[in-house]
Specification:
The chain is built from 26 helices and 17 strands. It has 1013 residues and is an alpha+beta fold. The protein has four domains: 181 residues, P-loop containing nucleotide triphosphate hydrolases (Rossmann fold); 221 residues, no CATH class; 157 residues, no CATH class; 167 residues. The chain has a six-stranded antiparallel beta sheet. About 1% of the residues have low confidence.
């Protein structure tokens, strides 16, 4: 991170706007901030820290940042432009404060605000807004949070020696803010959780083992009690089993299971014996029941003998009557048909009467028919012939009526054609007027299209010019972007070159420091030293562990040359883009356009005007053709209108002739009907009379035929009755029986004969068996079998329980054995996990946690960097060393205590024993060591600035000179260094800086060359 421009207003003692350009101040890489006490020098560092993180560097409160010298409505604001992460940024913040109301009395609260922009090209690009979001984004860009920033870039007054003099616990808390050791803290938490989980898993496994013992005891307890109740010898095992009792329990349960199996076999044998005895008795009982049933059935059949004989006689009479069934049915059918024919004749005669009364103009022969009795066939025939004659007359009149209707339709069509011709004439006249209006309306578009065609050339030239200006502006915008990329590449190349130069200078310094060792390596016994000339070499300088080889130095120099070439190429590319941009600017100034939006708008207007003119000019041919077509249609409409008027005259003449023919047909129809009657209705009634009369004639014929057939059936039935022995038809009908009933009588007689034969056969079959008089006693045998079955089921249940208990106990014992082995392995794993957790949590010797070990390593690295500078500032006298704080070292990384080694005495002592100047030297070296370590562990963070507030007044001139030499080395490495101090000697050495001048209206800043005090 490198600051460029700091601006503030109404901040601290600064009421008026203040602007500080660090690029101007740092031409020499080192500047001084000085002024009277209380003028506000430290507030400049507070403003820098506040702009980035919204916090101040010292112990001040954020609520008191507004300047008391500022106007009542002024807001405390700070902005900072800085470079970081390969880009340039601007951050602005407003502190929370109370300001005067714009209206009325009193104050109002203003909240804190923040915004962040990326400065790339012309317009700043907003990146973040809001206090929290801007803070997170700045920390990401800089690579440091606020606490790290105050330790490695900005060393505030009063906290300069914080790392040096802090207690171990405070130093640990401070190191935690600088270095992210949350991973190790989470690892410690994870180990603690694993240890707890292992302990819980061990307890759970032990509980499972106890539960298995309880399950085995529960399964064995009822059997043990049963053995004790039976007064059998037992193993006297307690119900609360121990693991060593398990084999005994398993053996006892096996013996009980075998005993239950033998008892089950004996009960099964007794059950089978009882079952066989009951089966034999059931066989004798079945034979005895068969004989008893046959005797009872035979006695029952003997009692039914008389009824069966009577049924046999009735069956014979019914079968004889069945032979005459067809004759009696034929006579009944003939009688029924005669009755039906007479009924139909009556119905048709009544229907004929109703139709005759309803009909008008019926023939006299029809009106003469009697409605009370059936007329003779000749009368009916005469009436039918008269109706046929009248039907012919009506059919002729019906034809005339159809012709009249056709004539009526033709008249109506002629009237409609006349009306349509009239309507067509009206439409033709309207079309004629419409076409004339259309022709008149084409004149103006034709004039506009001809004008547009004449102006096309000028519009095309204007559109081309606007397009060329738009392309030039787009090219300038692209050149701006390329220039930004080239500038970023130049910045990156410069940063790489600075890094390579710093690396090369560091190697060069280390190589010079190790030059004594290189010279000592070439010393030969008895040969003079090239430095002092002595031939005695008592203590040749040893080679350092980090000695720089010539190859490493050559590689660093090559890297520096390579970064220089990359920088030259980047600047050349930047120059090419700049030249292209300047050429485009000249072209655009000549065209009079300054913005791309205006050029695009002008180009769009020119293109729109050109397209509109092209559309109008393109429509000219179509408009000419449309005008010609309109004139042709106008002439066509005039010709058609004359044709429609002629057609109307013809329609009127034809209509008059058709109306005359219609009147003649109407007169003829009225004469034939004798009035205004409907011939179709009269014809329909005459045809209905004819159909009714024909139906009556057919019914009369059917009646005569039915009378003849009835007489013949009566004669045939009388002859059949005499031959069969029946006195009359009534006797025959009484003897008739339905076929289903006769079949039932026949099956009853057959079943009677079969049952009688079956009973006699059974008795004959069992006559040779020695059956007892009384039926065998089955209930006693069944009771014996039930008792045997119950005993068998009890034995089976006991065997099942014993087998189940043995299986369960065996399985539980096996699970207990495998669980015991798993418990031992789990115990070993838990011991291991708990040992590791106790070691990393500091609960076991040497009682140092993992996180503290890591922080100790960071502190050791910090001391390594610090000692390199402390050795230079103290001429090699002092060296910082780690200490565990107890006086007993437990390893090179054991504690977080600090002690100082005095090379003059060879003894270590407390850092509190250092003098004020020595404390400043050690604190400065330690602070720079913290910065180096944070930079090394912050993922490539480049620290390009350092601000130190006070402390130089405690140094003597020599020490001050050494301290400034060290700061000069930092400056030569490319770092910006700002010092706040009252020491006059610093103004002799640092010629550039700023002075803070206090006044009654607030402080102000004077930037420029400093004068020696």
């Amino acid at each position: 991170m490198r600051p460029h421009l700091l601006e503030m207003e109404a901040f601290g003692p600064y009421a008026d706007p203040v602007t500080i350009c660090f690029d101007t101040l740092c031409r020499d890489g080192l500047f001084l901030i000085h002024g009277s006490t209380g003028a506000g020098k430290t507030y400049l560092l507070d403003a820098l820290c506040f702009a980035l993180y919204g916090e101040v560097s010292g112990e001040r409160s954020l609520k008191g940042l507004r300047s008391d010298h500022a106007p009542p409505q002024s807001l405390p604001q700070v902005s900072l432009e800085f470079s970081a992460a390969g880009g340039r940024w601007r951050v602005e913040r407003q502190a929370a404060c109370e300001v005067a109301k714009s209206r009325g009395q009193g104050t109002t609260s203003k909240g804190a605000k923040a915004a962040l922009w990326r400065l790339q090209g012309g317009e700043p690009q907003p990146l973040a807004s809001g206090v929290q979001e801007v803070g997170r984004e700045v920390a990401r860009l800089v690579g440091l949070d606020a606490a790290q920033f105050r330790q490695v870039i900005l060393l505030p007054q009063g906290r300069f020696a914080e790392v040096l003099r802090a207690r171990d616990e405070d130093r640990e808390a401070l190191l935690k803010t600088l270095f992210d050791t949350s991973l190790y803290e989470r690892a410690m938490g994870w180990l603690a959780g694993q240890a707890k989980t292992a302990e819980e898993g061990l307890r759970e496994r032990q509980r499972q083992q106890r539960h298995l013992l309880e399950q085995i005891a529960a399964a064995w307890e009822p059997w043990q009690r049963e053995r004790q109740a039976a007064e059998e010898p037992s193993t006297e095992l307690p119900f609360e089993l121990l693991p060593e009792h398990l084999p005994t329990v398993q053996g006892a349960m096996g013996a009980l299971e075998r005993e239950a199996a033998l008892s089950l076999d004996r009960a099964e044998a007794r059950f089978l014996q009882a079952q066989a005895g009951l089966a034999e008795l059931r066989g004798w009982a079945e034979l005895w029941d068969r004989r008893h049933r046959a005797q009872a059935r035979l006695q029952e059949l003997t009692q039914q003998h008389g009824a069966m004989a009577a049924l046999q006689a009735r069956l014979a009479l019914a079968e004889r009557a069945e032979t005459l069934r067809s004759s009696v049915l034929s006579e009944a059918e003939a009688r029924q048909r005669r009755e039906e024919a007479e009924a139909r004749c009556g119905q048709q005669l009544e229907r004929l009467r109703r139709l005759r009364d309803a009909a008008s103009q019926a023939p006299d022969a029809v009106m003469a028919l009697s409605p009370l009795e059936l007329p003779e066939p000749p009368q009916l025939t005469a009436a039918l012939n008269a109706l046929a004659v009248r039907q012919g007359e009506l059919e002729q009149l019906l034809t005339l009526a159809a012709e009249r209707r056709q004539a009526q339709r033709e008249v109506e069509q002629a009237q409609q054609a006349r009306q349509e011709a009239t309507d067509r004439i009206a439409r033709g006249q309207a079309l004629l007027a419409q076409e004339q209006a259309r022709l008149d309306g084409l004149q103006q578009p034709l004039l506009q299209a001809r004008s547009a065609r004449d102006g096309l050339h000028g519009l095309e030239l204007a559109a081309g010019q606007a397009a060329r200006l738009t392309t030039a502006l787009q090219q300038r915008q692209e050149a701006d972007r390329q220039l930004q990329k080239a500038s970023a590449a130049v910045l990156a190349a410069e940063a790489a070159q600075q890094q390579a130069r710093g690396h090369q200078l560091d190697l060069r310094e280390r190589q010079l420091q190790g030059m004594a060792a290189r010279l000592a390596a070439d010393l030969q016994a008895g040969e003079p030293c090239p430095v002092c000339g002595s031939r005695h070499h008592p203590q040749p300088a040893p080679e350092a562990a980090d000695a720089v080889a010539d190859t490493a130095m050559a590689a660093a120099e090559r890297q520096l040359e390579e970064t220089g070439r990359v920088l030259v190429a980047a600047r050349s590319a930047q120059a090419r883009v700049q030249a292209q941009l300047e050429a485009l600017e000249g072209q655009l100034q000549a065209g009079g356009m300054t913005t791309l939006a205006a050029a695009k708008a002008e180009a769009a207007r020119a293109v729109a005007a050109l397209e509109a003119a092209r559309r109008q000019a393109g429509a000219l041919d179509a408009l000419e053709a449309e005008r010609q077509q309109a004139e042709q249609r106008l002439q066509h409409y005039r010709e058609r209108l004359q044709q429609r008027e002629n057609e109307l005259i013809s329609c009127r003449q034809g209509l008059a002739q058709q109306e005359k023919g219609l009147a003649d047909l109407t007169r003829r129809i009225h004469a034939g009907l004798g009035g205004d009657h409907d011939p179709a209705a009269l014809l329909q009634r005459i045809q209905g009379l004819m159909r009714s009369l024909e139906s009556l004639i057919d019914a009369a014929r059917e009646r005569a035929l039915a009378l003849s057939r009835e007489a013949e059936a009566q004669r045939r039935l009388a002859g059949d009755l005499a031959g069969a022995g029946f006195s009359d038809p009534q006797a025959l009908l009484q003897a008739l029986v339905p076929e289903a009933e006769r079949l039932g009588w026949s099956r009853t007689l057959q079943q009677y004969t079969a049952d009688q034969a079956l009973a006699q056969g059974v008795l004959a079959e069992l006559a040779g068996q020695e059956l007892p008089e009384k039926r065998p006693d089955l209930p006693a045998a069944e009771t014996l079998l039930a008792a045997a079955d119950a005993a068998r089921r009890d034995a089976l249940a006991r065997f099942t329980r014993a087998e189940t208990a043995l299986t369960a106990i065996t399985g539980l014992i096996e699970r207990h054995g495998s669980g015991a082995a798993a418990l031992a392995a789990q115990q070993r794993q838990a011991d291991l996990v708990q040992g590791v957790a106790a070691r990393c949590l500091g609960q076991s010797d040497p009682h140092i946690s993992l996180q503290r070990w890591v922080l100790s390593a960071y502190l050791e690295e910090i001391c390594g960097y610090a000692n390199q500078r402390l050795s230079q500032m103290t001429a090699g006298r002092y060296e910082l060393r780690l200490s565990d704080g107890s006086g007993q070292r437990r390893g090179s990384k054991a504690g977080l205590g600090l002690r100082v080694l005095d090379a003059y005495t060879g003894e270590e002592r407390e850092v509190s024993s250092l003098s004020g100047g020595e404390t400043f030297q050690a604190s400065l070296a330690l602070a720079l060591g913290v910065a180096d370590t944070v930079q090394a562990h912050s993922g490539g963070v480049v620290l390009e600035a350092l601000f130190i507030d006070e402390g130089f007044g405690s140094l003597d001139p020599d020490s001050l000179h050494l301290a400034m030499d060290e700061l000069d080395r930092l400056r030569e490495g490319g770092r910006m260094i700002g010092l706040i101090s009252h020491v006059a000697a610093l103004r002799e050495r640092i010629r550039t800086g700023l002075e803070v001048v206090a006044s009654e209206r607030g402080s102000r800043v004077v930037v420029g060359t400093l004068e020696a005090a």
